[in-house]
Amino acid sequence: MSIYILDDDVFYGQKIKELVEKESKTFTQNFGEIFTFTKYRKLFDMIEERSELSLYFLDIELKENQLNGLDVAKEIRKYDQEGLIVFITSHGEYAPISYQYLVSALTFIEKNQTEIYIRKMICKCLEEYQKRINDPSNQEYIVIENELSIKKIPSKEIEVIETVQAHRLVARGPLRKILFYGTLKEMEAKHSFLIKCNQSCLVNMRMVRELDTHNRWLLLMSGDKVEISRRNLSDIKHLMKEER
Description:
This protein has about 240 residues and is α/β, with parallel strands linked by helices. It has helices at about 10-25, 40-45, 70-80, 95-100, 115-135, 185-190, 230-244; strands at about 1-5, 35, 55-60, 85-90, 105-110, 140-145, 150-155, 160-165, 170, 175-180, 195-200, 200-205, 210, 215-220, 225. It has a five-stranded parallel beta sheet with strand order 2-1-3-4-5, sandwiched between helices. A five-stranded antiparallel beta sheet has the order 10-9-8-12-11. Helix 1 (about 10-25) links the parallel strand 1 (about 1-5) and strand 2 (about 35). It comes from Facklamia lactis. This is Response regulator transcription factor. Pfam families: LytTR (PF04397), Response_reg (PF00072).
């Protein structure tokens, strides 16, 4: 878990960090590290390989030829669809504009309000963050190992794992495509939510939107379809009913 603060005013960014630290001490939850940035590029460098649920506090009015906070949020969504985004602004009129960016902001915090107000808003953000962290579906990971590293990828980021060559697999999701060595049998044994749907493919049942029993395919959250073999159809039908 990590909390990221982006504000080009180094003093205000530090103030938000201090308030977040104070409020976080009222929770039993460990929220992980808190990072502050004045440049969005340094933030992007850190989150590009992220694998945890994150909370972002973004200043909207970034200066010095930077992207504004709304555009930064849009870029963050390319890496992180689940993270909580909170905008910090001196201008409340940005709130309705943000919906045009489709970044699913959690809330807005107005800079020109009292410290009591800001602390209450931060507390509400941490409450929601805690709730998301403790959601069982956010605690599931797919472990991918290769010669150089072992990665824990949140299960929500992987829809299917497919065979591409002998003992070589690809894990694929809306924002990820990772090649690694292994077998479908090994991955299925490690993760109960990965189910074989045909000879060369495991599907993440948490990411299934619809089952078409007539045409024998699964519709995934991304809109992609995966073919089901006749042999595996009855098992998947049973699992779909259990998921309800």
